[in-house]
C-alpha cells in the first residue's frame, strides 16, 4: 500500500540556524519557509536526490510542534511521510487493521497541497506516520 518515502520531518528550535547549517555544512538545497496555519507549523523543505527533509517550526501558541520542542528542546525527528495512491482507501484499510488515524480522520491538505493523514505513533512502533496522496 505505501509507496516511496516522501520526507522525514525534523522539529527544530531555530529554523534559521537549521536552514543555514544544512545549506552551509551539508551543501543542501534549502527551500523558502512556508506557513501552514491549518497544521500550526512553518515548514522548510530540504531537497535531496531521492527524498526530502522537512523542518518543522511552531506557528502560533497552539502548535503541536511547540509541545514537541518543550519535551525535546534540541529538536528531533518528528514523523516520517509515505506516499499512497488513494488516501481514503489507505485509511479504510488501516482502520480495518485496527490502526488509529489522528484528528477527525478526514484528510487535510498538507504542505505540498495534497491530502494527508497522520497515524498514531503507538500503533507504529513509536513513530508518527504521515500518509500523503500522490
TrEMBL record:
Which PROSITE patterns does the UniProt entry name for this protein? VOC
Q: Where is the VOC domain?
A: 4-134
Classification via InterPro entries: Glyas_Bleomycin-R_OHBP_Dase (IPR029068), MeMalonyl-CoA_epimerase (IPR017515), MMCE/EMCE_epimerase (IPR051785), VOC_core (IPR037523)
- Record-level GO BP terms: L-methylmalonyl-CoA metabolic process
Broad EC category: isomerase
> Which CDD domains did the record assign?
MMCE (cd07249)
GO function terms (MF aspect): metal ion binding; methylmalonyl-CoA epimerase activity
Q: Does the keyword Transferase belong to this entry? A: no
Give yes or no: UniProt keyword Metal-binding. yes
Annotated keywords: Cobalt, Isomerase, Metal-binding
Which catalytic reaction applies to this protein? (R)-methylmalonyl-CoA = (S)-methylmalonyl-CoA
Q: Which family does it belong to?
A: Belongs to the methylmalonyl-CoA epimerase family.
UniProt name for this protein: methylmalonyl-CoA epimerase
Organism (species): Octadecabacter arcticus 238
